[in-house]
């Protein structure tokens, strides 16, 4: 049934649509603190669905075929953002089992022992002793930490307060947060260079995602150019191959990046880029601002149904 409807909504050729799935982490097991991240069991079900019902292509090939109106029916791509170690440890074996290609967008500043600011917040709050924390001196309010539900609520508020600060300021804040909560950061969440190289050697695509995962719209042109270009060059050093695909950090057009940043990505030598704007791409979509589809559903049937609805909504009137 899915194939029949999918062929109607996303046929081959010039009327084709491209669903670009976006993942971040793939956890070995469920985690109440990370309830919005998929675990290995659910990810395996997603990949079984994609392998059975979609024509999954490497993103670079899909972008080229989209531009010339040569996509197959039910075309899809799989992408991962940020560069988490579980991408290589947990997701890669599942992808290989089903023979599926994927693209991994990696922020190079966190490889080899680094950690992203949001994960600093998550792990500090996760490991903090139970109690009430008054963070008014940091401009962050107060929080009572007990069970995982309360900790997750605190995490969400803190991340929202810190996310749009300049990189140096947010890094300083999470350091102060760790001291205030008598907690600390792990150093094994992100991929190391050898893991990135393994993905590349296994036939996966490696894409740029800046160095420090900043909000590009908040940077000067010089700073944004360096973040985009330096990340690309570092990944090419690690893989020994060209890096031609890019993902905007956070990825909301008009809020997290703007036309200037799109131009900088093009000037840096990338051939296509993805955002986090929801939807599916079709011929005529801006190759430097391709939308992506967030597969938060744990049920493959619900995932397929929601994707079909997205395809319906993307049909021009």
Question: What does this entry show, briefly?
Answer:
This protein is an alpha/beta fold and 317 residues long. The chain contains 11 helices and 13 strands. The model has no long low-confidence stretch (mean pLDDT 93).
Structure description:
43% of the residues lie in helices and 16% in strands. The protein has 11 helices and 13 strands. It has helices spanning 2-9, 40-53, 59-67, 85-98, 117-127, 148-162, 167-180, 193-201, 221-239, 259-267, 300-313, and strands at 17-23, 26-27, 38-39, 55-56, 75-82, 103-106, 131-134, 142-145, 205-208, 245-247, 272-278, 281-282, 290-292. The strands form 4 sheets. Strands 1, 4, 5, 6, 9 and 12 form a 6-stranded mixed beta sheet that branches. A 3-stranded parallel beta sheet has the order 10-11-13, with helices on both faces. A hairpin with a 7-residue loop joins strand 7 (131-134) and strand 8. The model has no long low-confidence stretch (mean pLDDT 93).
Secondary structure layout plus pairing:
Layout: H1 2-9, E1 17-23, E2 26-27, E3 38-39, H2 40-53, E4 55-56, H3 59-67, E5 75-82, H4 85-98, E6 103-106, H5 117-127, E7 131-134, E8 142-145, H6 148-162, H7 167-180, H8 193-201, E9 205-208, H9 221-239, E10 245-247, H10 259-267, E11 272-278, E12 281-282, E13 290-292, H11 300-313
Parallel strand pairs: 1-5, 2-3, 4-5, 5-6, 6-9, 10-11, 11-13
Antiparallel strand pairs: 1-12, 7-8
Helix pairs in contact: 1-11, 2-4, 5-6, 5-7, 9-10
């Amino acid at each position: 049934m899915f194939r029949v409807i999918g062929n109607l909504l996303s046929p081959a050729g010039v009327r084709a649509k491209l669903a670009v799935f976006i993942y971040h982490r793939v956890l070995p097991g469920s985690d109440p603190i990370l309830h919005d991240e998929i675990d290995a069991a659910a990810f395996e079900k997603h990949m079984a669905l994609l392998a059975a019902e979609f024509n999954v292509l490497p993103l670079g090939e899909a972008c080229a075929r989209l531009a010339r109106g040569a996509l197959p029916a039910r075309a899809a791509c799989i992408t991962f953002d940020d560069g988490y170690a579980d991408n290589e440890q947990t997701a890669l074996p599942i992808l290989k089992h089903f023979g599926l290609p994927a693209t991994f967008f990696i922020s190079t500043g966190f490889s080899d022992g680094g950690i992203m600011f949001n994960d600093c917040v998550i792990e500090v709050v996760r490991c903090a002793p139970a109690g009430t924390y008054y963070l008014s001196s940091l401009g962050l309010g107060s929080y009572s930490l007990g069970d995982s539900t309360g900790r997750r609520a605190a995490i969400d508020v803190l991340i929202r307060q810190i996310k749009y600060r300049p990189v140096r300021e947010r890094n300083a804040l999470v350091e102060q947060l760790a001291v205030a909560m008598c907690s600390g950061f792990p150093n094994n969440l992100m991929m190391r260079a050898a893991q990135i190289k393994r993905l590349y050697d296994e036939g996966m695509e490696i894409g740029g995602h800046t160095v420090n995962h900043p909000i590009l719209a908040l940077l000067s042109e010089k700073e944004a150019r360096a973040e985009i270009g330096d990340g690309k060059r570092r990944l090419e050093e690690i893989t020994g191959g060209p890096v031609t695909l890019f993902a905007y950090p956070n990825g909301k057009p008009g809020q997290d990046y703007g036309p200037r940043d799109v131009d900088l990505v093009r000037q840096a030598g990338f051939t296509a880029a993805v955002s986090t704007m929801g939807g599916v791409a079709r011929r005529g979509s801006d190759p430097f601002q391709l939308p992506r589809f967030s597969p938060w559903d744990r049920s493959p049937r619900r995932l397929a149904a929601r994707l079909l609805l997205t395809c319906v909504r993307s049909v021009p009137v």
